[in-house]
Write a structure and sequence with these properties.
Mean pLDDT: 88
Distance between the termini: 32 Å
Structural class: mainly alpha
Number of strands: 2
Strand order of the largest sheet: 1-2
Length: 121
Amino acid sequence: MLATRGAATLPAVPARRSDLHARIHAVVRRIPRGRVATYGQVAELAGLGRQPRLVGYALAALPDDAPVPWHRVVNAQGRVSPRATPGADRLQRALLEREGVRFDRSGRLDLERHRWRPRRA
DNA sequence: ATTCTGACTTGGG
DNA sequence: CCCCAAGCCAGAA
């Protein structure tokens, strides 16, 4: 099928933008409706270890039409992380509420109750 | 090529 | 509750 190496016109290695992002997005795609995962949790599941920040970077890089439920990722405090873009955080919260996730007065959700617990890592 | 700038978390003061 | 530092990727200017 595909030439596996050295075709003059093809790169030896696929020019993927970023392995890191791809892996992160893959994990986030697994988060079921009505459940949430923290940045740290996603980092672990993606095999990045303690690098929750990278998860934030990867999600920030998502195009608007990406088939990734980015809104299901919240911070370790169970809150929607403040976003630089106006309204972005409001949208995230709205999307979660639409899936049945409730927030308390301080804008915090119950991680114990809503956290996604994948059987397989 | 260098610099800047974000969706984080943890440990400590 | 607030503040600070470290760890570290990628796209834009």
